[in-house]
Specification:
disordered N terminus, 6-stranded mixed β-sheet, alpha+beta, 4-stranded antiparallel β-sheet, Rossmann fold, 2 domains
Length: 462
């Protein structure tokens, strides 16, 4: 029995050893496969960020050679930052970044591989595992209008607004992207018109205009939105250089409270031009104005602005608009020819309406304040109907406070304008271009918010 038992043990031991070796090798293979998956995932993330950074960097430089050099340098920096040296024992190799220009787009291709150790858990695998990846980012040219609120409430934030807007502008290609610049308060002005035939924009001119912005007046958001859309649509659809990616960037710190109109005057000859009629944000008071719809802050003269007339003895008080104006127009006509301010061909946006807010044609705070919000939302929706993306950025706690006659949050209007994923249900339109709303709680959040919008735009150019 003893001899038999000894022989059996001698036979079993090699089997146990072999089994253990098989298990070790299987574990090694499983570990190797898992390691390979993790390294390849890291490579994917690193090349994605590198390709996107490279595409962004093509915005820097006045010619393709400089843009290519900048793209390759940016791709290398972002790859190295996102794939640390020696990650999980691997050695990464970044291929030569390729930058190609075709028609109206630039493609950045980033390839990389990583060599893993050949020996894992004491096993001797048949050579190194080399997971490789290739990422391409195709950046299409875009047509874009940057629209900046320059109302008086932003005066304390002026320096940060200017610097953040300039930083945002640097994300775009001055030779390929077609960009315009608009600012608004009581009225709106085109600082740099979007080019109607050639591509590109004058970065120096835009930076100069941004640095010179003055912050005063009310928040006639509809005037800024009207001007931005008009600029994009001034590029003929038949123009072969017109981009199929069109974007409006809209920045504000408050709720809309003003808009331009040819009002119906009791004595028509009192005022023969359009003017911006305004309200305050506290939910009360008389509508006031009028101001030029084509300027940041210029009061109209003569009887177009009752305050210019001073004390009205016949009424025993200062004159109000309602003393001389009989009604609001039925349709938005702030830029229609004075010879026919009620031109039926220009009846795009209703002033008097039952939705989304009820507005009659009486000259009251309620009607003017509601119409100001209705109009800018309607203009943004019309832009999206035309395939335009609207991206909005809001600054400051006032946007989250109840304001106006209906005590609404200003940021709800900005979300509606963008057709953002978190927009109120009353204005959500998922079948239309979905933009992004970014909230900057403080001035320090402005640049990150502008960067977020730039990233979102570059993603939809892919």
């Amino acid at each position: 029995m003893a001899t038999y038992t000894h022989k059996q043990r001698g036979a079993v031991l090699p089997l146990i050893v072999i089994g253990m070796l098989v298990l070790i090798m299987a574990a090694g293979l499983a570990f190797s496969a898992g390691l390979s998956y993790m390294i390849k995932a890291k490579l994917n993330a690193a090349t994605d960020s590198a390709a996107l950074a490279g595409a962004r960097a093509t915005s820097l430089g006045g010619d393709q050679a400089t843009q290519t050099t900048n793209a390759k340098a940016a791709a290398t920096r972002f790859f190295n930052a996102n794939f640390p040296a020696g990650y999980l024992g691997s050695t990464a190799t970044l291929g030569d970044t390729q930058v190609t220009y075709t028609g109206g787009q630039v493609t950045v291709s980033v390839s990389a591989s990583a060599t893993m150790p050949a020996s894992l858990l004491g096993t001797n695998l048949s050579g190194p595992l080399t997971p490789g990846v290739l990422t391409q980012t195709t950046r299409k040219d875009l047509d874009m209008v940057i629209t900046l609120d320059t109302s008086g409430s932003l005066s304390d934030s002026a320096a940060n607004v200017r610097s953040s807007a300039i930083t945002f502008l640097k994300q775009f290609n001055s030779t390929q992207d077609r960009v315009g610049l608009v600012h608004f308060a009581f009225g709106s002005e085109v600082d740099d018109a979007i080019q109607q035939t050639a591509r590109g924009f004058d970065r120096t001119s835009m930076e100069t205009h941004i640095k010179a912005l003055k912050f005063e007046g009310s928040t006639a958001s509809a005037e800024g939105m009207w001007r931005a859309r008009q600029q994009l649509n001034s590029v003929p659809s038949a123009n072969l250089n017109r981009s199929n990616l069109r974007v409006i960037i809209f920045f504000s710190d408050g709720a809309p409270n003003s808009f331009a109109a040819y009002l119906n005057w009791k004595t028509p000859s009192d005022c023969l031009v359009a003017g911006t009629i305004a309200t305050d944000d506290d939910g009360s008071g008389e509508p006031y104005g009028l101001y030029s719809p084509d300027d940041n802050y210029t009061a109209l003269g003569g009887k177009c602005n009752p305050y210019n007339q001073g004390y009205n003895n016949s009424l025993g008080r200062n004159a109000q608009l309602s003393d001389r104006v009989s009604s609001l127009p039925d349709w938005y006509n702030g830029h229609n020819p004075v010879t026919n301010p009620n031109d039926p061909n220009a009846q795009e946006f209703k002033v008097v309406t039952t939705t989304p807010r009820v507005v009659t044609n009486a000259i009251t705070y309620q009607n003017v304040n509601r119409a100001a919000r209705n109009l800018v939302e309607a203009m943004a929706a019309k832009s999206q109907d035309e395939g335009i993306y609207v991206f909005t950025l809001g600054l400051g706690s006032q946007l989250k406070a109840a304001s106006g006659v209906d005590k609404e949050k200003g940021e709800d209007t900005l979300k509606c304008m963008a057709n953002a994923v978190d927009a109120p249900s009353r204005c959500a339109r998922p079948s239309k271009p979905v933009g992004v709303y970014c909230y900057a709680a403080t001035q320090a959040d402005l640049t990150p918010c502008f960067s977020k919008l730039a990233s979102a735009i570059l993603k939809i150019t892919k």
